[in-house]
Amino acid sequence: MNKIILNNPLDMHLHLRDYDMLKLVAPLSSKQFSGALIMPNLVPPITTKDMLKDYKKRIQLSTSNDNFEAYMTIFFQLYDKKFLEDIKDDITAIKLYPAGITTNSDGGISSFDIETLRATLEAMSDLNIPLSIHGESDGFVMDRENEFLPIYEKLAVNFPNLKIIMEHITTKEACDMVLKYDNLFATITLHHLLITLDDLAGGLLKPHLFCKPIAKRYEDKKALLFLATSGNDKVMFGSDSAPHPTSKKESCGCAAGIFTAPIALQYLVDIFIKDSFDENQIKTATKNLQKFLSYNAVKIYGIKPTKKQITIVKKPFKIPANYTYGDIVVTPMDANEQINWSIL
Ligand code: DOR
Ligand code: ZN
Known about the structure:
Order of helices and strands: EEHEHEHEHEHEHEHHHEHHHEEEEEE
CATH superfamily: Metal-dependent hydrolases
CATH architecture: Alpha-Beta Barrel
Number of domains: 1
Strand order of the largest sheet: 2-3-4-5-6-7-8-9
Bound molecules: (4S)-2,6-dioxohexahydropyrimidine-4-carboxylic acid, zinc ion
Number of strands: 15
Helix content: 25-40%
Number of helices: 12
Radius of gyration: 19 Å
Distance between the termini: 15 Å
Shape: globular
CATH topology: TIM Barrel
């Protein structure tokens, strides 16, 4: 099989940033994706309807050459029901960050006491607004996600009608947890399907593979690959493509975030059909990829993606060294390397 057709691909976790960086990275996603869930961790974070509408306008201007839907989010705070009723038609989810856990998350949540969160989460549940979570504790870096799992569990049990998305899961235990409760769902990134901690730090340190949550062990990657490729309804593709200027990555105090937007579809095709040896296997793999990349998100979020067909062909694609706009330079993951598949 030398050609795979993808219908309405969606990236359900994307950082587009703002201004010149937005102008640089947004078209790289809008060309290949039907839509994306846009993260709100700007400085300052998106917390009001005016900020949200202005940001969406800037995204639309940057993606005006493509048929692309920006599914917007706001940054979780203890919002009241009136505010949520007023904003609900403009957002697809609310993104919760534990305070200080990652890039631009200082204004996040410092207590997961259920009674403190109850009014906001019950209102979200009543209004059918999904809760998207960066689930990490502030413990030892390799344990952070697993230490957060009891909080996911507590939220899932206390708010059974609230859709909770475990963002960018990275461990085998998180893969088990998402299957345990009907109201838990998850996104999986491209990079966590490709790398382990060894790729980042096992040899010379690779800043362009540094992200939060950090890549884990081989067994974790194996569990993620199985969950993503097996056609399970509960997981969606969310690239967590998180561009930082190359100068902030290749520096002492490297910023967390891996820029994968321009290489995501080519790599995903490679991952999904790698072990297919005949037409039937390729058919199943393509069907499962289609679920992971679009159908599952459509069902989980209840969205209607804009129609877009993307053709991926078996032709080598050399990943550019950099992408630039004015003074901004961003380095993609695996810069200068070659992928087996290209976008037609
Ligand atoms: O590596 C990351 N980068 N993880 C996140 O959660 C945030 C992101 C960013 O915004 O740079
Ligand atoms: Zn993110």
